[in-house]
């Protein structure tokens, strides 16, 4: 830059437009913007994954739910569970929602999947008096991320086996009825044989 001063000219060097601190501030702002973008992308990926899992579980026709082993609150329920027990069951006590109990069920499966049994699958059957249906339950402890380090919770898939139980009951009744018929026919045959034997004895003696 040339500036006139009297009869002489004075050359003045151009000063930098940005100071070091301003440059660092701009660099930090750029870094934070990129970091925020990466964070948002990660959140989008996580939400996509959650949506995919939710879609997967909702496509299963059998009721699935997740409950807390200490508070016994329902943390998640798929569409099948909501269709059977109501759309507002999340946050309620599992023993109230699923079994109409006022306290923890005596047959609660938590002891079979927690503690030294973590990692094991527990399969059991029960009759729901609430809906008069039979279920085969598959329970397992799973890790549940919650934003505070995560925790172990109970995952349960309940398969409706009512028709199977009804078929087994019908088969048992038929089997018992068949045994009664066989026993009756056997007795009739024995009576007939005894009667024939007496008749033959009388014939020979006469």
What would you say about this model in short?
The chain has 206 residues and is of the alpha+beta class.
User: What's the helical proportion of residues?
Assistant: 40-55%
The biggest sheet amounts to: 5 strands, antiparallel
* Beta-strand residue percentage: 15-25%
Uncertain spans, ≥5 residues at pLDDT below 50? none
Mean pLDDT: 83
- Adjacency order of strands in the biggest sheet: 4-3-7-6-5
- Taken in chain order, the helices and strands follow as EEHEEHHHEEEH
Structural class by secondary-structure content? alpha+beta
**What's the total count of β strands?**
7
Number of helices: 5
Radius of gyration from CA coordinates: 39 Å
Describe the structure.
This protein is an alpha+beta fold and 206 residues long. The chain has helices at residues 20-58, 79-85, 94-99, 110-113, 162-205; strands spanning 2-5, 8-11, 64-67, 74-77, 122-128, 133-144, 151-160. The strands form two sheets. Strands 4-3-7-6-5 form a five-stranded antiparallel β-sheet. It has a two-stranded antiparallel sheet with strand order 1-2. Strand 6 and strand 7 form a beta hairpin. The chain is rod-shaped and about 140 Å long. The chain starts with a strand and ends with a helix. The mean pLDDT is 83.
Secondary structure: elements and pairs:
Elements: E1 2-5, E2 8-11, H1 20-58, E3 64-67, E4 74-77, H2 79-85, H3 94-99, H4 110-113, E5 122-128, E6 133-144, E7 151-160, H5 162-205
Antiparallel strand pairs: 1-2, 3-4, 3-7, 5-6, 6-7
